[in-house]
Design goal:
Helix content is about 20%, strand content about 15%. It is built from seven helices and 16 strands. It is α+β, with helices and mostly antiparallel strands. Strand 7 and strand 8 form a beta hairpin. The longest helix has about 40 residues.
């Protein structure tokens, strides 16, 4: 039996050992907390986005001829009349692929911004001052705070904006979002069937790497970046986008193509068979007339444009305050239509996408010749889909617009520029 002196010595030794262990653990905890404070919760945990794509099949479908912004369709361009506008063959795709059911939302874009620009320095011009709610009460989707913690400089301007399409995209911004997905980690991939359509839902941990991936952006300013890989996330091509919106694998429409992404329509009848336009809840932008079908968010003739004013903003500020110094009259005339909550119009394309007609016009990665007819040192890309502020003709199959991929002024002043994600090839979990 130990003596009392030995007992005391043993107790002191155990106490010193325990205290030492506690000190070591406390040091580890402090180091962990310091690391979280340094990199921020979003950066340490890894920001993720989840989105659903439709599966587009019928590989090798036939293309059709269109003359941009004319109300006609041709089996081939040989049938098209002579015109100053060049006839284009569009819509044919030789492979199966995926396309986002919905446009990329403001909430998803903010997640991306904080993941790839945690310091808020914005070296790649992913944000414009006109996107803030103070600069543009009616259309400002995203606020920026220089004093916020690392990985938290960007925030959704008001809760109602979270499920609206991101509306200030240019191609380079869209490509950087895609590169972040491509370089990220695919955490889950789930197939489903709903309403006769096939879907795949992806969950991806974003990567901070935006300059390479599917698009190698460095050094591609003059010629433009093309896809660098056969498998992965992409900005859809013009043909991929058009097929998803207009091609009917059951043979409906004309030559199996619809006039609108919402319904077959009738080529040559102007807007007589156009979808109805949405009406929006004036305080949150939700669609209130979804029972009316087919339906799209655009400015139909003879009715008011769909519009709403975000919470925290007065009706007067929404109607008058703008970053351009326009008078209330000029501003009210030029900026009427508002973006609606994604998917709430509920009218599907032949493949199950939503909102390819109206809401935000969407970028594709298809490079087009300059409209000047000669090289002007800029890279022009195709867009499609119509907007909340424009009439029915911009929803037509033939409405193939184009813009410079990095038009800074256009990006900052045209709040209806969106995009959706495409998928080519078969993506594997844990890989790109």
């Amino acid at each position: 039996m130990p003596t009392p002196a030995f007992k005391a010595t043993q107790t002191k030794a155990i106490g010193r050992s325990t205290i030492g262990m506690l000190r070591n653990r406390l040091a580890l905890v402090v180091m962990a907390l310091a690391l979280v404070a340094l990199v921020g919760p979003a950066a340490s945990l890894g920001a993720t986005v989840t989105f659903k794509t439709v599966k587009v099949g019928a590989p090798g479908n036939a293309s059709v001829g269109i003359v941009p912004f004319t109300d006609a369709i041709y089996k081939s361009c040989e049938e098209a009349p002579q015109s100053s506008k060049e006839c284009l063959m569009v819509g044919g795709v030789k492979y199966g692929y995926g396309l986002g059911q919905l446009e990329v939302t403001v909430a998803q874009w903010v997640t991306f911004l904080n993941a790839v620009d945690p310091t808020g320095n914005d070296p790649h011009r992913l944000y414009s001052a006109s996107e803030s709610s103070s600069a543009w009460p009616k259309f400002g989707q995203i606020d920026f705070s220089s004093s916020a913690g690392k990985g938290h400089h960007y925030s959704v301007a008001s809760p109602e904006w979270a499920d609206k399409p991101y509306g200030f995209a240019n191609f380079l911004r869209s490509a950087r979002f895609v590169n972040s997905l491509y370089n990220g980690t695919l955490l889950s991939k789930k197939e489903s069937n709903e309403g006769g359509f096939r879907y795949v839902t992806y969950k991806v941990r974003l990567s901070p790497q935006t300059e390479t991936g599917m698009y190698k952006l460095a050094g591609a300013r003059v010629k433009g970046a093309n896809r660098a890989h056969k498998t992965g996330f992409v900005v859809p091509s013009q043909d991929e986008w058009i097929k998803s919106a207009y091609y009917d694998p059951s043979g409906g429409g004309t030559y199996s193509y619809w006039k609108y992404p919402t319904d077959p329509g009738v080529f040559g009848d102007g807007s007589a068979t156009a979808p109805a336009s949405t009406t929006l809840n004036p305080s949150n932008g939700d669609v209130t007339n979804a029972a009316t079908q087919p339906l799209a968010t655009y400015h139909a003739s003879g009715v008011a444009a769909p519009t709403w004013c975000p919470s925290g903003q007065s009706a007067e500020d929404c109607a008058t305050v703008n970053p351009f110094g326009l008078s209330p009259t000029a501003y009210g005339k030029g900026f009427q239509g508002s973006l609606s909550s994604v998917g709430q119009a509920k009218t599907t394309s032949p493949w199950g996408t939503l909102d390819q007609g109206g809401n935000a016009v969407e970028w594709t990665d298809t490079i087009a010749p300059s409209p000047t007819g000669k090289s002007d040192g800029r890279v022009w890309r195709r867009l499609h889909g119509g907007i909340a502020n424009a009439p029915a003709y911009q929803l037509w199959l033939s409405a193939v617009g184009l813009q410079p991929q990095d038009n800074t002024l256009f990006t900052a002043t045209y709040p209806w520029l969106g995009f959706r994600i495409g998928v080519v090839g078969s993506l594997k979990l844990g890989k790109r």
